[in-house]
Structures are given as structure tokens and as C-alpha cells.
Design brief:
By secondary structure, the protein is mostly helical. It is about 60% helix and about 0% strand. The chain folds into three domains: about 130 residues, Citrate Synthase, domain 1, CATH 1.10.580.10; about 160 residues, Citrate Synthase, domain 1 (Orthogonal Bundle), CATH 1.10.580; about 110 residues, Cytochrome P450-Terp, domain 2 (Cytochrome p450-Terp, domain 2). The longest helix has 28 residues. The chain binds coenzyme A (COA).
Length: about 450
Amino acid sequence: MFATSIRRTIGHRGRAFYGTRPKSLKETLCDVIPKQQERVKMVRAEYGEKTLGNVTVDMAYGGMRGIKGLIYETSLLDPEEGIRFRGLTIPQCQERLPSAPGGEEPLPEGLFWLLLTGEIPTKEQVKMLSEDWAARAKVPIHVWDIIDRCPNTMHPMTQLCVAVNAMQTESSFARAYHEGISKNLYWEYAFEDANDLIARLPLVAAKIYRNVFKDGKIGEIDSKLDWSANFCKLLGFEHPEFVELMRLYLSIHSDHEGGNVSAHATQLVGSALSDPYLSFAAGMNGLAGPLHGLANQEVLRWTLKLQEDVGDNPSDEKIKEYIWNTLNNGQVVPGFGHAVLRKTDPRYICQREFALKHLPNDKLFKLVSQLYNIVPNVLTEHGKTKNPWPNVDAHSGVLLQYYGLKEQDFYTVLFGVSRSLGVLSGLIWNRALGFPIERPKSLTTESIIEKFQLKK
Ligand SMILES: CC(C)(COP(=O)(O)OP(=O)(O)OC[C@H]1O[C@@H](n2cnc3c(N)ncnc32)[C@H](O)[C@@H]1OP(=O)(O)O)[C@@H](O)C(=O)NCCC(=O)NCCS
């Protein structure tokens, strides 16, 4: 039944039947995809035999750092400058993407549109997408039951992964594949799943939050609200400044090119043609690691302990001592360092600007600012970290706690809701470009020794 209705839409694609209404996201994508398929064909024909770089033994042992072996169309990370979403920096996105009436921050719907199509949507198109997601936001009863059965002691990220996997029953991609579809149509089913999943995530995430930390009750999706405003309402936070913060938060955490753990895990699992629910759940399992997304909860925990230890208005010396204790205990300073970035993360900077505007006198913000001046010097003196500067996670917790969202264990779920926009856009493109199953070659230490004839 569902597959038939999708096929009907597919039958109309690309035709000028829109009348006076603006093109929808899918219609826009229908125009963009064939052009990009042609460009990829041309690039492969022309440059297919060229080398992108060498792979050294150290790179293979070192988490594949710097190996250029993935194609990911939606964003690109420059070590010095930070992320660009389809060529646009964060300040450019803040300036050019539509915001909510009376608001200033970009609406994540607009960012999703940009990531997917490379085009900036109009306000009207973003409104259409908000309405579309509100209409798609239906969570099956068994998923509610499964979330309700999770013990409160189960980490919210684990609950998110469980719920997303459970929601796989709704996958139109899996159903269509089972029925037998042409490869050319894969992206369209991935598109439907991605949009359904993104639409449902605020409900699922809010239910987890309300179950673990509140009374377990959540409201309903309001078709007049945008995605972020609906999410905030479901969580129980309706302060307009908090809603603006979430629009910014959900936009900037969305995508960070393709090699980070959550993006790569999603693409890797998706390459086996596991559907978008299963693929995204894999990405979320990766995001739940403390060196990746979970760092945001670790940062606030670490900073609050620091505050408790050094008291209000601490001297730089006292803070330095605390940082050295962390390092000497063999732990990392959460929120600092990055596998690719070599400067302060622009996602940190835009959150700092938000804080300077809305909470300049907050004690914890002042402490975070003081850390910004101290930690990089200590890490440099420590001499191990390649990048001593703060990353996105160094700042998000202080903003959330200011508006009353103090449950640190929930922070990575917020990151995950946002990350869906990027990694699912990437997944749709992988299906549109017909990427094959991933299968890089692995080696054993023995085989390396043999190769370089170091064997005694
Ligand atoms: C993000 C991170 C995982 C990148 O790892 P990476 O690419 O291996 O980083 P580097 O190459 O700079 O690591 C070199 C060494 O410095 C250490 N290092 C890196 N960042 C550090 C930090 N913030 N505090 C202490 N030590 C750090 C590494 O643990 C590594 O030590 P080792 O040689 O004993 O294994 C790392 O910087 C980190 O653990 N940061 C803290 C956690 C965090 O904020 N994660 C969120 C990232 S967005």
C-alpha cells in the first residue's frame, strides 16, 4: 500500500506540475540528483586513476587519520577554518538560511535542505518542510512500549539506539527492497525513511527525557510549529530564547564531513543496504562514545566538579592545577582537541557568541571562558595533543544548563537528534550515487613485517 503511493509520487518526478506552489524538497532533489550523477561519472572517467594521497603504516595503525578514502557530499571540514555545509561557513548559514518569525538563528529544516540539495530554501519551502515533518511525526505503539520498558538506569543514548532500531518496522526502504525494486529507486525510499525518522526523533527523544527525568508524559506535535519548537515543547522547555538556542544547536551539530564515527558508522552500515533506521542506529551507537558525542556530557560533569573544587572566582593557578590533575590521572580534558581541526571550532565560537549575547554574567559561562584562556596553554605544555583548542562539546552544556536542561546524561541525545540531519542526508546521496558496499583492505602486523622484509 505504502510502496504504491510512493511509486505514484515517483512517477510524477521532475515534471512541472507544481502550479504556483514552490518546489518541495523531493522535487528539488529530483532536479539535483541527475546532474550530480553526471558530474560523478565525469570525475571518475577523467580522474579515476589519479592518486589522492599515500597511505603510510602509521596511518593504518593511527585510526586512518588523514587517509582520503571516502566521498561525502554534504559538508567538508578544513583543519584551520572548521566546517562548511555545502560550502557555507556557520556565520554564512546564520546569515542566509531562513529563521523563524522573530528569530535570528537558522532553522534546522533549512540546513537539511541545504545539506541535501546544495541550495538555500525560501522561507516558504522551509515552512513546507516543517509541516511535512509534523505530519510524518507518528511513532508506532510498540516503540512507545519499548521505551517505557527501558529501566531509568539505562543511559538515554542506549534507549535512543533501542528505539531507533525498534522503529525499523516502519522502513519503506526495507519493505520495498523485500518486494524487489530497481537500484535507481533506492534513494527515493531512503529519502522517505530519512524524513520519517527525522520527523519522529523529537517525539522519541522527548519521551526518553520525560521518562528518565520527569513524569513520563509528553504532549503532541503541533503542526504550526517548526521542528525545533516542537521538540522543545515536547521536552517541556518553551522559553523563546531556549527555542532559539535549540535551532542553533540542532543546526550546528548536524554534520562534520564523513569520516567522524557517527557519520562513517551510518554510511558503512548503510553500504550493506541496511535501511536508514538500522544505519542511523549504528551511527548513534558510535556517537554514544566519550571521545565522540558523549564528550558533551563529560564536559559539563568535569566543569561542575572543577567549580565545586575551586569555588567561585577561582584564580588561573587553581584552575591550572585542576587541569594538570586530570592529565596526570591519565584522563583527557573533555571538550578540547580534535582529530582533524587545528584551531578553535567555529561551532564553539558561535555558541560562545550566543552566551555573550544572552547569558554574559552566568557564573558557569565565565568559568568556561576562563578555561578557554587556560586549557590550550596547559595542553600545549603537556605536549601530546595535536590540537589544544576547544571543540563543539566544550560549550554546549553551559548553555543548556542555563535554561534549566541540567540532565547531562541527556545531552548526547540532543546531539543525536541533530546529527540525523547530516548523516541521513549523506546516506540518501550514497544511494543516489550508487555507492557499493564498503570493504577496505585490512592487514596483519605479520603481513606488514613480511612486506617490508623486517622479519628476522
Ligand atoms: C577528540 C580526540 C578524541 C581526538 O583524538 P586524536 O585525534 O587521537 O588526538 P591527538 O592526535 O591530538 O592525540 C594525541 C595524544 O593527545 C591526547 N589528547 C588529545 N586530546 C586530549 C585532551 N583533550 N586531553 C588530554 N589529552 C588529549 C590523546 O589522548 C593522545 O594521547 P596518547 O598518545 O597517549 O594516545 C581527543 O582530542 C580527545 O580525546 N579529546 C577529548 C574528548 C573530546 O572532547 N571529544 C569530542 C571531540 S569533538
